[in-house]
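Field reference: sequence -> structure
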Amino acid sequence: MSAVPRSDKSGRAEKPSGRFRRMLDRLSTSQEDLESEELQEDSQASGCTRISECTDRQIVKVTGTLRTVTLRPRAGVPALEAELFDGTAPLDVVWLGRRSIAGIEPGRKLIASGRIAMSHGRRVLFNPKYELRPLGKE
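Structure field:
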C-alpha cells in the first residue's frame, strides 16, 4: 500500500479520505485558507452568489465578512466604503452620502444585495440593501 494519492477518471489526484487525514489537512492549512473555506461554505449555505462569479451589471445577493471600512469622499460627497470578502474574491461596498452606519465595522458579517458595477477593475456594489448577520453566529 502506497501513500501516493490515487487518480480518478479525470486524471486529478483524489485526496485520501478519513478522519485522520482530514485532521492533518486542517492542521497543515494556513489560518487564512481555513477562514476562506468557512466563508465559502457560509455563502453556499445561505444561497448567495459567490463574489468571484459576479459579473458587471448583474443583480446579486452576496454574503461575507467586512475586511476594511473607510470614509472616502467621492466627487466631494462623503462615502462609506467597505471591502466584503466571501472567500473567493473581494467586493467593494459603497454607501454614498454616509459618514458612518451603525454595525458596519471590520470583522462583521453581512448579506448585501444590489447591482454589481465594475470600477477600475474591481467589483463594486453602490448603496446596497444589506442585512447584518447576528453576532452570535460568528
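Note: The beta strands are 59-71, 79-85, 90-96, 109-119, 122-126, 129-132.
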